[in-house]
């Protein structure tokens, strides 16, 4: 017969095993505002985890939205959330969701057509930091970009950290994941897009006119745009800098270019 110590150890092992199974089967949305955004969307949600003892207006709204959708709500200790999403600021709320569905290139064109706008895409060349991808998605949603294209290999995908950093934009900006960025850019050009990249030597980005169908390539955080992909670009853009730091974070550079595109597509009257 097992003593209490052994029973407790077995219980902890079972808990860790269940957590591991949930991690394998789910992605996670972390934080209160991202959770509310997801619950208001059509995204499939498997379970809602709420930290035991938390009571405030946002937690109440999350519970109300979850009940409205007849979702399973589980009140759990903080340690459970920390096992599910280690080293993340979960704010006492974690949603277990089905892995995010990726769009197709046609889906991106269809979104532009539905809005009766010329296509405006972001092409991300091996962005590795999920916070950068989430921030880029957030700005892409703000400026009305029709989608983001990422490679399947050597690039961060749609993870829970991306979802949290995007603060809900992941629900509104389709992301297509492709096998070969070079071939994809050639396809985009065949379908009428002008493709722009970023480089130290190029046209001042303030002259960038994005009125027509455009794609903007944002390079890897350390290496920039890969050499083969550079050869596909119609024009290079440069962001002038007169300070001591001569490089910008990928998401910051992307934001500047996206807002320049926004300005040319939606000029002040």
TrEMBL record:
One of its GO terms (cellular component) is cytosol. Residues 1-20 have a biased composition (Basic and acidic residues). The keyword Ligase does not apply. GO terms for biological process: methylation; RNA processing. Residues 1-27 are annotated as: Disordered. Residues 28-103 form the RNA 2-O ribose methyltransferase substrate binding domain. InterPro entries: Alpha/beta_knot_MTases, Ribosomal_eL30-like_sf, rRNA_MeTrfase_TrmH, SpoU_MeTrfase, SpoU_subst-bd, tRNA_m1G_MTases_N. Keywords: Methyltransferase, Transferase. One of its GO terms (molecular function) is RNA binding. Belongs to the class IV-like SAM-binding methyltransferase superfamily. RNA methyltransferase TrmH family. PANTHER family: 23S RRNA (GUANOSINE-2'-O-)-METHYLTRANSFERASE RLMB (PTHR46429). NCBIfam families: rRNA_methyl_3. This is RNA methyltransferase, TrmH family, group 3. It comes from Secundilactobacillus similis DSM 23365 = JCM 2765.
């Amino acid at each position: 017969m097992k003593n209490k110590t052994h029973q407790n150890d077995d219980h902890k092992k079972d808990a860790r095993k269940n957590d591991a199974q949930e991690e394998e089967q789910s992605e996670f949305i972390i934080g209160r505002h991202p959770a509310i955004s997801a619950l208001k969307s059509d995204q499939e949600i498997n379970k809602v985890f709420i930290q035991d003892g938390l009571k405030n207006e946002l937690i109440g709204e999350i519970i109300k939205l979850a009940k409205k959708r007849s979702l399973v709500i589980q009140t759990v200790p903080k340690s459970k959330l920390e096992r599910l999403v280690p080293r993340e600021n979960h704010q006492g709320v974690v949603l277990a969701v089905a892995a995010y569905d990726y769009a197709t290139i046609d889906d991106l064109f269809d979104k532009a057509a539905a809005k009766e706008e010329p296509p405006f895409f972001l092409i991300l060349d091996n962005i590795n930091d999920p916070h950068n991808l989430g921030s880029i998605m957030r700005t892409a949603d703000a400026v009305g970009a029709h989608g983001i294209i990422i490679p399947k290999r050597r690039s961060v995908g749609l993870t829970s950290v991306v979802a949290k950093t995007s603060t809900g934009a992941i629900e509104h900006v389709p992301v297509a994941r492709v096998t070969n960025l070079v071939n994809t850019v050639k396809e985009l050009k065949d379908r009428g897009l002008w493709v722009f990249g970023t480089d130290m030597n190029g046209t001042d980005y303030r002259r960038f006119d994005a009125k027509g169908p455009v794609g903007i390539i944002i390079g890897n955080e350390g290496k920039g745009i890969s050499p083969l992909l550079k050869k596909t670009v119609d024009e290079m853009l440069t962001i002038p800098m007169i300070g001591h730091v001569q490089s910008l974070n990928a998401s910051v550079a992307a934001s500047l270019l996206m807002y320049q595109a926004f300005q040319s597509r939606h000029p002040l009257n």
